[in-house]
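ok here's the first one, seq then struct tokens
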Amino acid sequence: MANADVVARARVALFDVERLSAERLVGIYRVLGEVDGPRHYARRLAVALHTTGHVFARHGADMGLTLGRLTEAIELCRRLDPAEHRDRDAVLRGMQTTHQWALYRYGRRGEALAVRRELVALARAGGGERRVLAEAMLGLAVGLVEDGRDDEAESLFAEAVAVTAGLRRDHRLTADRHWYVTAHAGHLATRGRFAEAAEVYAPLLGGVGDGGDGGLAVAVDAMPDDRRVPILLYGAHLLAAAQRRVEGRAVFARAVETYRRGVDPGPVHAPVRGRFRGSVHSLSHDRLAHHLAVFGAADEPADVAHATTRDHWSPTRLDRYVRAETALRGALDGPTAGAAERLVLERRLNVRAAFAWMPRAAVIDRLLPAFAKAVDHARAFAVADPDAGAPLLVRALTDHALLLAGVGRAAEGVADLEEAGAVYG
């Protein structure tokens, strides 16, 4: 039992709670819990334990200490009365999200996947937002892909799309639903099932197929300004891969026109969406990198779900993706790489660089020259070998145009995109 002096100091310390570290709060709530009863401080202790566990995991602290803090926090949270703590399930989901991340970080993949399954179960049982359920499904599906369990993952990708259908009142979901559709289509494409992938993705394009969900997907015209062109470009890619080249050319032409319209919006009074002028409507380079990774998924190892955002990747897979840069540079500098292989390696390096956080000036100084050089290399290869080089040139040109738009220089990218359209068609 804590002595009176210790208890008094703990109570006084709480008057300045905002300045206390989470680690100190853990000790204070333990002391006061002995006096006033654990129930009075259970939630606050759980939150403090979760915070310290999160910090420990991010900084590579001792595994036993980190996981001990997180599991204790979770058990305390489970015992909270949901009638008294109405947000208990949301708090528990947040703790479990940190827990699975830490388990992956420490190499305990089986346990981490089990936690992702529990997150899906919690979301199903909660009867709350369908967006929460879709997010949990996507996280579990990505974990399954990483472990080579593609068949099980596929049903979750599809269900996440179905779960999010028709929720017109949820503005955030309406804006973000294309992530789920892209994840499903991208997974099918990675497995070589291009016809199915094109059907799944078609509703996003508006007027191309129905994707099997009754047209409930949010079409590209309803997407936020900065996402339209990448969505159309990926749709054209899937249609071409599915041997639907006429439709693919039409969608690619829409991408070019959408991009051009964003640069030249017409009269000031005209209500034009999709402008690329200014940073507010520009696609940030790290978000753009997701779209570039989707376009290049076939070039990467199959155990990374490249059609998903990196928020869902396990930290070990994310590290491996980033650390592959050294091997890629070695292969690029090696004497055995052919011209086509060198273009693919160069692009994989550029996409990895685009994922890294950097200020806009660094994007202009570092990324733009690298993407421009890739265009020059692809153009030279396309001249030497038109059949093999054309698709690589199209991709290099669209990459460069999108990056230019992302830094507010879309006008310079129009010629690239128009050239890509001419080569594509």
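and now the second one, same deal
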Amino acid sequence: MPSFPRLKRISFLLGLIPFVFFTWSLFTFSINIPWLDDFEAPMTIRAWFAQPDWFDRLKMIWFPNNEHRIVTLRLWVMLHYFVFNQLDLKALLLTSHLYIIIIFVLLWFNLPNKNRWWYFLPIPFLYLNFQYHLNTFWFIVSIQRNLVIGFGFLAMFCLSKGSYKLFVTGILCTMLACLSNSDGLLFIAAGGMILLTTFDLKKLAIWTGVFITFLTLFFWNYPSMGSNQNGLIYLVGHPWQSIQGFFVFLGGSADYFNEQDSTVRLVFSFSMGLLLFIIIIWGFQRWVFVKAEKTYPSFLKRWTSGELANPNQLFLAGCLTFCLLNGILLAVLRSKSGPFVFLIGNYKIIATLAMLLTYVVTTHLVSSIFTTKWVLPVALLFWLSSILTYYPAIKNRKEFLLQDYQSFIHEKQGLGFSKENVKKYELHLMMVQMLNKGEYIPDTK
């Protein structure tokens, strides 16, 4: 049996494997070629210079993309352009993944103090997998979701700590999450839940007032919500499909049959989602209520005294609320599109986050020996399976984009657009102009 220091060094090297492989994959398979909505980036640059008036430029930054405000993405694109005088989608995508450092640092400090490293070891294997590869390698989806998660988790951390300075920071981070993608709005509800749990009525009143004002501005001249209304109408007639959809979404991390539209995918994902939901309810019931009631027998007294939950519990509850609300919202609005819509690749990052956060909750209820003996092997198998299942699609996507870019340049069609739409939106002209000015240099291999 190796000595403890040696064992810890070995485990540290083991934990580095998913970090190194994920980073290598990012640099190898991300590509400076736009696909479909990625054209938002060059169009932002063109629209900025087409509007000499600053007020018009601000309106352009604020204007929705489909049904999302993507203010942070547009500002990031323009900042990068002014610094480097170039559009580099790959560089922007790579830098957006710095949010992973934020997530892992926050989770580290929310693990049990004793044997923290052993509890942390499964986390990189659970999260740095390739289940959600679309979110990893598709430029616009990646940046939108990464910014939402990064800013949102920071906001939950700030609110869980209770200080007024961090409360203000939490408000700002929540706003930035909302302005990165529409699901960032769910952090408003998650933050309100934290403040309500701590019975901090003054902060809750400020939070409510600030975000009522913010939401009024957010939805001013917003695109039609007709599709959402249709989803609500469908829900009334098909409630079971929405319930099923919620659990399928929540268990999307168990979807290893991505090439089949079969009930096998739904059964596995539904079962995983139901299991996670049970563990979440059981975990918080054991961790928050059973342990706390020994000191504060009265629930009302614990709540009104602000002693119902500690900062670790509040942070994890806030982040899990965001994940669960994502599932509820999609289940309500998207069930009419069929059950497989919940297994779309760029949704799976939320399911993976839910699984990861559920694991962190359980670390406060099980021993580190149990974690290394049972959870770590499962996490390692989960990570390896994601590579075997999804890596061919990742490599094929890059090869496809390289070929499709040639079709776009020479035949004026491709990259998600027909020849008619390329002409209608002057996409080919825009890209050729940027090529000629040296503002855009595409990858060639």
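notes on #2: The CA atoms of residues 246 and 327 lie 5 Å apart. The two ends are 47 Å apart (CA to CA).
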